[in-house]
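## retry 2 of 3
previous attempt timed out at serialization; input unchanged, resubmitting
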Amino acid sequence: MSNFSDELNSTQDSSDFNSEVNWVDAGEEEDSVPSTEAIPLEVGGSAIVMVETAFLASAASIIWLINFYFPPGPLLRLLFPLPIALIYLRRGLRASLMGTLIVGLLLSILMGPTRSILYVMPYGVMGVQLGAFWKRGVGWGLSILVGGIIGTFGFFFRFWILSIFLGEDLWIYLTSQIAQILQLAFVQLGFLAQPSLWLIQLIALIGIIFNSLVYVFVVHLVSMLILNRLGNPIPSPPRWIQAIFSTD
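## retry succeeded, writing output
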């Protein structure tokens, strides 16, 4: 009888010891396993940013490629800066800069570095600028003015790059064409004077700036119609534009 009680006590002691050991091991395992409640959110969020940036950058590259090989006119040119601007509106500055870099790399592989540079400047930079201004609610006037400056600088940058690769000064070619047009205009108006060089260059500069401002203005109109439907609206246009398009 005493032997049976001793065995029973020893069994209880061993079970208590095992339970204590298991409890300690369980506590150590719980302490050793890091908390992963916030990790999937961060990883998932960064993955979404990467996927959206890559997708919109690819869309910008495809638009550029289609316009280069199968140009449908000025229609696709209005969409050049929109993917980068949409990246900024949705994911911020860093993602938009990464998107511009991705577009440059893709176009460098597919078309060569020269044509990729012609996209990055001015359209990539303009997309970042428009996205930043729209994100902060800047009015159309200042946004169009700064975008026009970027477009004008991009025009001269494009002329400089192409002049280097072609071995000719394209600015001289442009001014000569404008000079011929002015001479015909002077003849039709009955003027015997010849247009001076400074007048020709001034008219060329005014035409380039005006063309850039009109381009950025039309980009704003297209963005108002497209981005509002995508859930990333841009700032409200002036009242006269709202009256024309009957926008709220």
